[in-house]
Amino acid sequence: MPFSERASRLKGSLIREILAAAQRPEVMSFAGGLPAEAMLPVVDWTTMPVSMGQYGMSEGEPALREALAAEARALGVPCEASQVLVVSGSQQALDLAAKLYIDKGTQVMLEAPTYLAALQVFQFFGADCIVVPLEADGPDLDALRSQLQTHRPAFIYLIPTFQNPSGVCYSEAKREAVAALLDEFGVTLIEDEPYRELAFDGGTSRPIVSRLQRSSWIYTGTVSKTLLPGLRVGYLIASPDLFPHLLRLKQAADLHTNRVGQWQALQWLGTDRLKQHLEALRSYYRVRRDAFQAALQTHFFDLADWHVPEGGLFFWLTLKQPLDTRTLLDAALAVDVAFMPGEPFFPDPDAHKGHLRLNFSHVDPALLDEGLRRLADVVRSGQSL
Amino acid sequence: MPFSERASRLKGSLIREILAAAQRPEVMSFAGGLPAEAMLPVVDWTTMPVSMGQYGMSEGEPALREALAAEARALGVPCEASQVLVVSGSQQALDLAAKLYIDKGTQVMLEAPTYLAALQVFQFFGADCIVVPLEADGPDLDALRSQLQTHRPAFIYLIPTFQNPSGVCYSEAKREAVAALLDEFGVTLIEDEPYRELAFDGGTSRPIVSRLQRSSWIYTGTVSKTLLPGLRVGYLIASPDLFPHLLRLKQAADLHTNRVGQWQALQWLGTDRLKQHLEALRSYYRVRRDAFQAALQTHFFDLADWHVPEGGLFFWLTLKQPLDTRTLLDAALAVDVAFMPGEPFFPDPDAHKGHLRLNFSHVDPALLDEGLRRLADVVRSGQSL
């Protein structure tokens, strides 16, 4: 068929295939990044103006852009509302960035591991992925400098706060060092922060974009992890040199983001009830995280190593005896357990076997122990083959 | 800056720039394709389940896909719900198609004139646009055959029912002839139908995709012109060979379409109250269309030729003395009138001077006469320069 050259790189999303397989109600799923159903806030639509049904501006609702800019400034990001583009979930920010930057063979720099769906869209557009290994407190700085000395990436894509999938949160020192390196080499930063508000053990450090002196940047976030993913309301904030290009790409992609979701998001942003909701959410997830850690210690102490995540939605396990965890999926689903294999989070999956990403926010704690026991059995069986 | 090669073709959307310039309340705008504010239905959200706030499936809500498939079958389009992909407004269908088909230099076939934002996204991805002139009842069939004999387009993009911008509705005979030609040459059809329900003078003919025997196809529609554009809910229905590719592209673009808009659309689809709303909408627009025609006859009889559109939202004027209507924009805005120049609706704007697209659904009829009088004066002044 006469498809485009890039269509030959069009891969399915393993995570969405697993989620589809895990639709059966009896399946205990550690696979997705879904908020807990019980913590979805009940929202009120009765005061929404009829005019929200009309076409809107590609930039997004003016009041929402103002509110998002104010929140970002409170985090130290120097910006105005004119730099805020409301997008249809933060995945769209990655799609727009890929269109703006990536031709076949364009080098982009990524953490290893990194967010699966970012990898998917960057590779689809033809990116040559240069990676920097993650350590417990952020990227390996020597590796980062070395890669920057030998490559000229179009951008570097980082998730510094409770990274997906690793759970890593960059230290203050590494944030400073990364910003200085990017300024030194003049590399554009795309900083993705869906999990900043989900901090269980204290505060978080300022975004890296707030520390840049010279480099161009795109900062992206979403209401999906704090409010309602079903609204599909995310945003990006860009340095002024990039904004006009991203706006045009947004126009061509879907004209503008749905206004009913934008209106609903605006009802919450900056309010006391959102603060209270976030406090409740953190408490709820903290309890689940701790219960998950306890169950992991029972069932995986001899099988894997891991850090306890201080935020976000995931544990990242490293098996003591590496094996291709993709080969465990069918066996896990056969005993009604879903998980996310670690390999697809690397541009070169076959070189990084033996990780599992486990979501702790979604499974009912009453089923947790049984679910992890079954998963541990599946890993043991896989290792003895 | 190290942008992609395609970014060099990233143009702004003239229509959205005009809409921005026309934000001043005193401006009478004939520019956009906005539904009349007064006809936006009041919708009820009180029974929406909280679960609509959770992540959803990339394909769209199952019940909505079933309802859309049933509607399409009623139009003669042979399809199942499994072929329906809910998208974030039908503009997104064009973005997905462009990603799937278009590399730099890929030939695509279009009507001349054609929908501005389709042209924008196809050209952005690097399309080489092959055009077929439109006549009053559809494409020039000799030209279509001749183009098909000498080119191998990745697809042909058509808007057969109340075309934007020309208002043309293909005759039954031309629909049959186009389907036969596409089957003969094995060319994929993308059929875009946002205006089908806005028929003021009787019924409409079956979609062309329903007449294809062999060619692959994508049929796309939206609730934006019938219900609420602010929901950003559109859909595409694809032949089974294309669907899996489009689904993966949708996943990578924005995960899924917002669920609150999908839920609201489902409350209306196939119901009696939608039938009543559409009947009211048609009556309302018919009155506006007729008033517009009367005012045009008063002010433009010596300046332009046009057909009275039997549906859709636009009059398409051809000036008796062609001039570049883009040069009239500033003068029109200076007297608080906005319109859409015709040139950008052609891949080669400079070769098609002297058309205006005028929307008749949005301006208050009380202001219509004054607005068109001012616009006629602007055209006269432009011609005498």
TrEMBL record, chains A, B:
Named cofactor requirement(s): pyridoxal 5'-phosphate
Species for this entry: Pseudomonas ulcerans
PANTHER family given for it? AMINOTRANSFERASE, KYNURENINE_ALPHA-AMINOADIPATE AMINOTRANSFERASE, MITOCHONDRIAL
Please indicate if the UniProt record lists Amino-acid biosynthesis as a keyword.
no
Protein name as catalogued = PLP-dependent aminotransferase family protein
Provide the alphabetized UniProt keywords: Aminotransferase, Pyridoxal phosphate, Transferase
Q: What is a GO molecular function of this protein?
A: transaminase activity
Q: Where is the signal peptide?
A: none
Database matches in Pfam families: Aminotran_1_2
Q: In this protein, which residues make up the domain named Aminotransferase class I/classII large?
A: 52-375
